[in-house]
C-alpha cells in the first residue's frame, strides 16, 4: 500500500523534521545544485533572447486562461472528431472513476502509467488499488518511489531525496514482489540501475492492455496532446497498449499549434537543462493501425476554476511544471518536497495547493509561509509567475480568515496591542518610557551584544520563543527618540 500526503502536519513541523535529516539535505543540495548549474549555463547561452522568450511563453499561457472556456470547447470538438472520447471531471473522484470504469470495461487488473503529476494529484493509483487494479509507474524515479512505498518529493525528479545506494537497496528488496526481480549482483552504478529498471518494466509494457497518461500541453486547434519526457518510457505507454486514458488539467490548453513553440523552447532548458527534449510524443485521437485504438481524455477541474477566479493567484495556472522554482529555492533545498505535504512541492506548490483547495486546513494554510520571499523563484520561472506576489496575497487571505476568531492568535494579539499603543501619543509615550527602563536594566544584565556593542536579549519565553530561536533581538534602547529630542532641543545639545 503506497503512502499518501493525507494527514501531513503543517509545514513548520514537517520542515523541522526534514532539517534534522543530514542525508536528505546532502542529497537535495547535490541534486538541485547540478540541475541549477545546467539550467544556468543554457539560459546564459540564450543571452538577450531569453527574456523575450519568457514573455512569449507567459503570453501564450495567459491568452489560453483569458478565454479558457472557448479553447476547451474547441479542444473537445477536435478530440471527438479524431475519434477520442472526452470526459469532463469536476474533481478527483470523478476523474479516478472514469479511469477505473475504462479498466473494468476491458477486464484488466493492471495499467501502465506515464509520469503524471495530475494523476498523483487525484490519487489515481490509490483509487485503482482499492478496486483491485494495479497501476505501474514506468518513469524511473516514479518507479523508485512506488517500490519504496514512498512519496514523491520533486516535480521533475520525484526520487531526488534518494541517492543511488538507497535506490540499489530498494530494487534488491522490492522488485521481486512487483514483477521481474533485480539481478543478484546489482551495483549502484546509474547505468546498471537503469538497465535493471528497463528489464523489470519491459514485461509490463508488452502485456499491458491499458495505458494512462497526463499531458504537458493540449493543443485546442488540432486536438493534440503532448507529453515530454527524458527516458522513452512514456513513448512505450502511449503506443503499445490497446487503450489509452489521458487525464489532463484544464489549464494545460494551448490555443494553437504555433503557440506551442516558445513553450517547447522554455521547458527543457528550465527543467532538465537541455536544449531540446529527448522524447516528445504527440497524439491526436485515434489512427487505425497506429497506437491505441481507443482513446479517452479526461478534462479535469479539481479546483482550477477556483484558482482562475482569484485575480492575483490565477497566474499560477500558467505553470508548465518545469520545477525551476524548486531548484533555486533555498527553503526547498533544505527541507525537500515531503515537508510541503502535497504532490506539488516547493514555491509553486506553496501557492498552487491553497489556490486549488481553498483555506481552512492548517496544513494548507501554512504553505504560503514556506518561503523567505527572496524572489529567486520568479527570476527562474519560464512563464513569469510572480510567486512572491501570490504568496503575500495568500498570506493576507489566511490572516483575514482569522480576524473574526473569538480567541486571537498570539501574533494577532500582539498586533492589536501595538495598534492600541500607536494610535494615541500619550499611550505611545508610556510604552516608550517603560521600554527605556527595561532597556537600561537589561543593558546592565545581558552579556550578549550585537555588532556596534548594542545589548541583545536571549530567547524570549512563551510565544516569543519561536521568533528568537533564529534571530537576535536587540534590547530596547535606554532612551527613546522623543526623549532624546526633548533633552537635546532637537539634536542641538549645546542649545544653539
From TrEMBL:
Q: Where is this region: Disordered?
A: 455-496
In this chain the LUD domain maps to 75-300
The keyword rRNA processing belongs to this UniProt entry's keyword annotation: no
Alphabetized Pfam families for the sequence: Fer4_8 (PF13183), LUD_dom (PF02589), LutB_C (PF11870)
Q: Does the keyword Metal-binding apply?
A: yes
What region holds the Lactate utilization protein B C-terminal domain? 406-487
Q: Where is the composition biased (Low complexity)?
A: 455-466
Q: Which GO terms describe its biological process?
A: lactate metabolic process
Tell me which InterPro entries the record gives. 4Fe4S_Fe-S-bd, 4Fe4S_Fe_S_CS, FTHF_cligase-like_sf, Helical_ferredxn, LUD_dom, LutB/LldF, LutB_C, NagB/RpiA_transferase-like
The protein, known as: Lactate utilization protein
**What is the species of this protein?**
Nocardioides acrostichi
Phylogenetic lineage: Bacteria, Bacillati, Actinomycetota, Actinomycetes, Propionibacteriales
Amino acid at each position: 500500500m503506497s503512502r499518501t500526503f493525507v494527514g501531513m502536519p503543517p509545514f513548520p513541523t514537517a520542515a523541522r523534521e526534514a532539517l534534522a535529516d543530514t542525508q536528505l539535505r546532502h542529497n537535495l543540495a547535490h541534486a538541485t545544485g547540478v540541475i541549477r548549474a545546467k539550467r544556468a549555463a543554457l539560459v546564459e547561452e540564450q543571452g538577450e533572447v531569453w527574456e523575450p522568450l519568457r514573455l512569449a511563453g507567459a503570453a501564450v499561457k495567459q491568452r489560453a486562461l483569458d478565454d479558457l472556456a472557448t479553447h476547451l470547447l474547441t479542444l473537445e470538438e477536435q478530440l471527438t472528431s479524431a475519434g477520442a472520447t472526452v470526459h469532463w471531471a469536476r474533481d478527483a473522484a470523478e476523474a479516478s472513476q472514469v479511469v477505473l470504469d475504462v479498466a473494468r470495461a476491458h477486464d484488466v487488473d493492471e495499467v501502465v502509467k506515464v509520469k503524471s503529476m495530475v494523476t498523483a494529484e487525484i490519487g489515481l493509483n490509490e483509487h485503482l488499488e482499492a478496486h483491485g487494479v494495479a497501476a505501474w509507474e514506468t518513469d524511473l524515479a516514479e518507479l523508485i518511489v512506488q517500490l519504496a512505498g514512498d512519496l514523491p518529493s520533486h516535480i521533475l525528479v520525484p526520487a531526488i531525496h534518494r541517492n543511488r545506494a538507497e535506490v540499489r537497496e530498494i530494487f534488491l528488496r522490492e522488485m521481486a514482489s512487483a514483477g521481474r526481480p533485480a539481478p543478484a549482483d546489482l551495483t549502484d552504478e546509474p547505468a546498471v540501475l537503469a538497465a535493471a529498471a528497463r528489464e523489470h518494466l519491459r514485461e509490463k509494457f508488452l502485456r499491458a492492455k491499458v495505458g494512462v497518461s497526463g499531458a504537458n500541453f493540449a493543443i485546442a486547434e488540432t486536438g493534440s496532446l503532448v507529453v515530454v519526457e527524458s527516458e522513452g518510457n512514456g513513448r512505450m505507454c502511449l503506443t503499445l497498449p490497446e487503450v489509452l486514458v489521458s487525464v489532463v488539467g484544464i489549464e494545460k490548453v494551448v490555443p494553437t499549434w504555433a503557440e506551442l513553440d516558445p513553450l517547447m523552447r522554455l521547458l527543457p532548458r528550465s527543467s532538465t537543462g537541455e536544449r531540446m527534449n529527448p522524447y516528445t510524443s504527440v497524439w491526436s485521437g485515434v489512427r487505425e493501425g497506429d497506437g491505441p485504438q481507443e482513446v479517452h481524455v479526461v478534462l479535469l477541474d479539481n479546483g482550477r476554476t477556483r484558482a482562475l477566479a482569484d485575480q492575483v493567484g490565477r497566474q499560477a495556472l500558467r505553470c508548465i511544471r518545469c520545477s525551476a522554482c524548486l531548484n533555486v529555492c533555498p527553503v526547498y533545498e533544505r527541507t525537500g518536497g515531503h515537508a510541503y505535504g502535497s504532490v506539488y512541492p516547493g514555491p509553486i506548490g506553496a501557492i498552487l495547493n491553497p489556490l486549488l483547495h481553498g483555506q481552512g486546513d492548517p496544513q494548507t494554510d501554512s504553505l504560503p509561509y514556506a518561503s523567505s520571499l527572496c524572489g529567486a523563484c520568479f527570476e527562474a520561472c519560464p512563464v513569469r509567475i510572480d510567486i512572491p506576489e501570490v504568496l503575500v496575497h495568500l498570506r493576507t487571505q489566511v490572516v483575514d480568515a482569522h480576524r473574526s476568531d473569538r480567541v486571537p492568535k498570539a501574533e494577532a494579539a500582539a498586533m492589536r496591542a501595538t495598534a492600541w499603543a500607536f494610535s494615541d501619543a500619550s499611550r505611545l509615550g508610556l510604552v516608550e518610557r517603560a521600554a527605556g527602563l527595561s532597556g537600561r536594566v537589561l543593558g546592565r544584565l545581558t552579556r550578549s551584544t550585537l555588532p556596534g556593542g548594542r545589548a541583545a536579549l536571549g530567547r524570549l519565553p512563551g510565544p516569543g520563543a519561536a521568533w528568537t530561536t533564529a534571530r537576535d533581538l536587540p534590547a530596547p534602547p535606554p532612551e527613546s527618540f522623543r526623549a532624546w529630542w526633548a533633552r537635546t532641543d532637537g539634536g542641538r545639545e549645546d542649545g544653539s
